[in-house]
C-alpha cells in the first residue's frame, strides 16, 4: 500500500527463489517469506548492511511451535553476522485466542488500554511461551495416540495378511471353510439358543440357519426342539456338512478355486471396511 518494493519468497517459485535469497541481504531489500520458504539457506549481507545493524527479521505472529519461531529468528545473525529479530503479535492471533488472550485482554481493560495500544512486557512473552508449551504438549499426546493406533493396526494387519497367505498357500481350502462354518454355527447357537432365559424361540434360529447354510425346510423345529445346545450343534452340523459335501461333489476341482476366491474377496472387503 505504501509503495515499498519487495520480493515474495513462498517456496512456490523455485526458479526465482535462489535469486530472491541472494538479494535479500542487500541494502534496502525487503523480502516477505513464509515459514517454509528458503529454510536452511544463509542470507549473505551486502555492502554496508552490517554497519547498519545487519539483517532485520520481523515476524507477524508467533507459531504454535517455538522451533519454527527460532528458525525465523535464526535467519538473522548467521555465521557471526550482525542482526536483529522482532515479533509483532495480536490478541486475535490463533495461538493467543486458543491459549491466553482472555487474561491479557482483562489486564488491558483494567489498565485502561485500548486494542491499538502496543504492549511489550515479559508477561506477554511468558504467556506466549506457555501457550506454545501447551500446544506442543497437545501435539505430542496426539502423535503418541497415533503411534499407539498404528501399533494396533500393525498387529491386525499382520493377522489379516497371515490369514490371506494361508488361504493362498493352502492346496485344499476346505479346512479353512470347515472351521468358519463351525464357528459361525456355534455363534448362532450361542446367540439364539443359549441366551434365552426360558424356552428359546427356535424359529429365528431355524430361519437364520436355512438362510445362511441350507435351504428352506432343511431344518425344522422338530429336529431341534427339546435338545440341548450340544445336541443341536450335532444335528445342524450334520445337515450343513452334507450340503457342503454335495456342492463339492458337483463342482469337484473347481470348488477349491471358487472357495479361495470367495474367502479372499471377503477378507479384503471386510478389512477395507475396517480401516476406513
TrEMBL record:
UniProtKB keywords: ATP-binding, Cell inner membrane, Cell membrane, Cytoplasm, Membrane, Nucleotide-binding, Protein transport, Translocase, Translocation, Transport
List, alphabetically, the InterPro entries matched.
Answer: Helicase_C-like, P-loop_NTPase, SecA, SecA_CS, SecA_motor_DEAD, SecA_SF2_C, SecA_Wing/Scaffold, SecA_Wing/Scaffold_sf
The answer to whether keyword Secreted applies is no
Query: Looking at the UniProt record for this protein, which Gene Ontology cellular component terms does it annotate, in alphabetical order?
Result: cell envelope Sec protein transport complex; cytosol; plasma membrane
* Cell compartments where the protein resides: Membrane
Question: What GO terms in the biological process aspect are recorded for it?
Answer: intracellular protein transport; protein import; protein targeting; protein transport by the Sec complex
Question: Which GO terms of the molecular function aspect are on file?
Answer: ATP binding
Q: How does it sit in the membrane?
A: Peripheral membrane protein
- Using the record's annotation, list all stretches that form the Helicase C-terminal domain: 1-125
Q: What is its main location?
A: membrane
Q: Where is the SecA family profile domain?
A: 1-120
Question: PANTHER family this protein is in?
Answer: CHLOROPLAST PROTEIN-TRANSPORTING ATPASE, SECA INNER MEMBRANE COMPONENT OF SEC PROTEIN SECRETION SYSTEM
Family to which this protein belongs: Belongs to the SecA family.
Q: What is this protein called?
A: Preprotein translocase subunit SecA
Species annotation: Escherichia coli
Amino acid at each position: 500500500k505504501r509503495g515499498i518494493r519487495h520480493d515474495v519468497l513462498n517456496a512456490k517459485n523455485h526458479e526465482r527463489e535462489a535469486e530472491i535469497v541472494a538479494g535479500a541481504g542487500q541494502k534496502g531489500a525487503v523480502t516477505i517469506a513464509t515459514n517454509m520458504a528458503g529454510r536452511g539457506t544463509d542470507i549473505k549481507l551486502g555492502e554496508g548492511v552490517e554497519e547498519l545493524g545487519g539483517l532485520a527479521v520481523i515476524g507477524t505472529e508467533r507459531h504454535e511451535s517455538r522451533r519454527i519461531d527460532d528458525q525465523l529468528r535464526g535467519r538473522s545473525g548467521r555465521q557471526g553476522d550482525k542482526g536483529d529479530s522482532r515479533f509483532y503479535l495480536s490478541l486475535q492471533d490463533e495461538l493467543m485466542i486458543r491459549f491466553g488472550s482472555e487474561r491479557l485482554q482483562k489486564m488491558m481493560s483494567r489498565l485502561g488500554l485500548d486494542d491499538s495500544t502496543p504492549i511489550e512486557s515479559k508477561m506477554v512473552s511468558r504467556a506466549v511461551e506457555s501457550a506454545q508449551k501447551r500446544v506442543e504438549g497437545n501435539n505430542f499426546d496426539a502423535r503418541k495416540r497415533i503411534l499407539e493406533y498404528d501399533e494396533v493396526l500393525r498387529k491386525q494387519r499382520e493377522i489379516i495378511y497371515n490369514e490371506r497367505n494361508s488361504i493362498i498357500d493352502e492346496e485344499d481350502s476346505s479346512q479353512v471353510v470347515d472351521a468358519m462354518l463351525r464357528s459361525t454355527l456355534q455363534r448362532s447357537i450361542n446367540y439364539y439358543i443359549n441366551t434365552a432365559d426360558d424356552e428359546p424361540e427356535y424359529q429365528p434360529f431355524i430361519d437364520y440357519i436355512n438362510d445362511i447354510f441350507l435351504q428352506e425346510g432343511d431344518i425344522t423345529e422338530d429336529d431341534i426342539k427339546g435338545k440341548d445346545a450340544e445336541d443341536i450343534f450335532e444335528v445342524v452340523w450334520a445337515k450343513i456338512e452334507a450340503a457342503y459335501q454335495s456342492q463339492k461333489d458337483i463342482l469337484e476341482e473347481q470348488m477349491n478355486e471358487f472357495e479361495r476366491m470367495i474367502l479372499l474377496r471377503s477378507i479384503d472387503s471386510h478389512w477395507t471396511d475396517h480401516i476406513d
